[in-house]
What we know:
Blueprint: H1 3-30, H2 36-60, H3 71-109, H4 113-119, H5 124-152, H6 155-177
Helix pairs in contact: 1-5, 2-3, 2-6, 3-5
Amino acid sequence: MSFANAKKYCKKTTQLIIAILxxxxxxxxxxxxxxxxxxxxxxxxxxxxxGFLVGIIALIGDPLSLPSGSWRVAEKARNNTYRNLKGTRNxxxxxxxxxxxxxxxxxxxxxGVLEIYKKLELSEDIKDNLLSIKLLTERFILFxxxxxxxxxxxxxxxxxxxxxxxxxxxxEDRRNAANIKNNES
Length: 185
């Protein structure tokens, strides 16, 4: 691994650790604010972002965005493209996991469901822990939401770089078609 790659992975690892710590802290602090309206807002946000992310995946994975040149140049660029696709796919999974937990949470906490749990012949420990489980689930939903928000802020930059590469490739292709080298006008 080159020094530049090691530096890049160190930066990404640091960002991940910071994102996790900040998300844990914020999810603990903001858990008392959870209500139906807040959960509905999160569902709307992540549903929209998931659709947006599918579009980004299509742009990143477009073979036309590979740099021009020989097959070796394209093969080299493939690794970066796959790395970007994997990161974006993982963010989509976080969105979907957040939506899944919100759906599950809402399903099991609607009016009357907690009363059904209390009527079941469950041990007193389980009944007493229902509130703790509810609080942990709320914090986990918030944790996933904050992580997803943190990484979503990187999407505009990623989208910009994809489009920038596509524009530069188009200019290079037009220059090549006109038999103009890069340093000529």
